[in-house]
From TrEMBL:
Coiled coil: none annotated. InterPro entries: AAA+_ATPase, ABC_transporter-like_ATP-bd, ABC_transporter-like_CS, ABC_transporter_ATP-bind, P-loop_NTPase. This is Sulfonate ABC transporter ATP-binding lipoprotein. The keyword Lyase does not apply. Residues 38-271 form the ABC transporter domain. The keyword Heme does not apply. It holds the Pfam family ABC_tran. Keywords: ATP-binding, Lipoprotein, Nucleotide-binding, Transport. Gene3D superfamilies: P-loop containing nucleotide triphosphate hydrolases. One of its GO terms (molecular function) is ATP hydrolysis activity. It comes from the Bacteria.
Length: 300
């Protein structure tokens, strides 16, 4: 069994120094507490295909606190999306256990504990922006008036009030992604699962979206599990950056990010020495201390 375990109290660790997995405090066994959003215990995932078996995840342990922002980073194919999909109940682990707010992913999904946003905004082209945001509420039988009020609030939150009656194709990529994020927040989830939601955006839009996401999460208090290939993005957003190894995916290091509280992170932070130090710490964690470039990881 690997020692790649993490503890809730690591988020308070003082410096952006990579923590070798072997020194990370072990998570005690037993049920997660009320302050735990996600508890992944000894999870492995093996896919069986015609060409043979693929071990995507091997004995992954990860505990994420309520309200905590955690990014997953690692080389292409290391199992980041697979881990997110298991938490989202879009697939099942081959072994090990996952709890979301103390319940199974299935029960958590049914209770609408989390929202999901992926790289493609995934909006329905025939519905207006407001109707897209309302969709999850509609599916769960929320009344028309309440839906409209909630969508109006969310569109104000992401700065798209004036576009409520537009259709997705009339919006830029960044605006569409903001609609997708508004939709993921519709049911006031305590957890957001985000798989490269800004991957298709240009750099300027992407940075603006990161700043907005930090603000939104501070306002809603949601915990976030965020998959990205970008080290600066992971550092800017997160309280901890979880570094994974090439397949079979394991957690090799956990880098606590000791910048301003995430709620207070602004663009100025990107020029800060502490920001660069954290970026370097993650980069070194990814490369095991060598300057070699990991496949599929953007180190800019
Ligand atoms: N449904 C599936 N059937 C078979 N193999 C799969 C399936 N889903 C994922 N895999 C394999 O599991 C491994 C992990 O894939 P995953 O998409 O989780 O990686 P990732 O870290 O998110 O990659 P990327 O950074 O390129 O998006 C890969 O080798 C992939 O081919």
């Amino acid at each position: 069994m690997s020692d790649a375990r993490t503890a809730l109290d690591e988020q308070d660790a003082p410096a952006p120094v990579a923590v070798p997995a072997s020194t990370v405090t072990a998570v005690p066994d037993g049920p997660a507490g009320p302050a735990t959003a996600v508890d992944v215990r000894g999870v492995s995932k093996v896919f069986t295909t015609k060409a043979g078996t693929v071990t995507a995840l091997d004995d992954v342990h990860l505990r994420i606190a309520a309200g905590e922002f955690v990014s997953l980073i690692g080389p292409s194919g290391c199992g980041k999306s697979t881990l997110l999909r298991l938490v989202a109940d879009l697939d099942e682990p081959s072994s090990g256990e996952i709890e979301v707010f103390g319940r199974s992913p299935r029960v958590a999904r049914e209770a609408q504990d989390y929202g999901i946003a992926f790289q493609q905004a995934g909006l329905l082209p025939w519905r207006t922006v407001a109707a897209n945001v309302e969709l999850p509420l509609e599916l769960h039988g929320v009344g028309r008036r309440e839906r409209a009020a909630r969508a109006a609030d969310l569109l104000a939150l992401v700065g798209l009030t004036d576009f409520a009656r537009h259709f997705p194709h009339q919006l830029s990529g960044g605006m569409q992604q903001r609609v997708a994020i508004a939709r993921s927040l519709a049911e006031r989830p305590s957890l957001l699962l985000m798989d490269e939601p800004f991957g298709a955006l240009d750099e300027m839009t992407r940075e603006r979206m990161q700043t907005e996401l930090v603000r939104l999460c501070a306002e809603t208090g949601a915990a976030v599990v965020f998959v990205t290939h970008s080290i600066p993005e992971a550092v800017f957003l997160s309280q901890r950056v979880v570094v994974m190894s090439p397949r079979p995916g394991r957690i090799t290091q956990v880098v606590p990010v000791d910048l301003a509280r995430t709620a207070e992170r602004t663009d100025d932070l990107r020029e800060d020495a502490a920001f660069f130090a954290a970026v370097t710490a993650v980069r070194e964690a990814l490369h095991g201390g060598t300057p070699a470039t990991a496949r599929g990881v953007d180190v800019r």
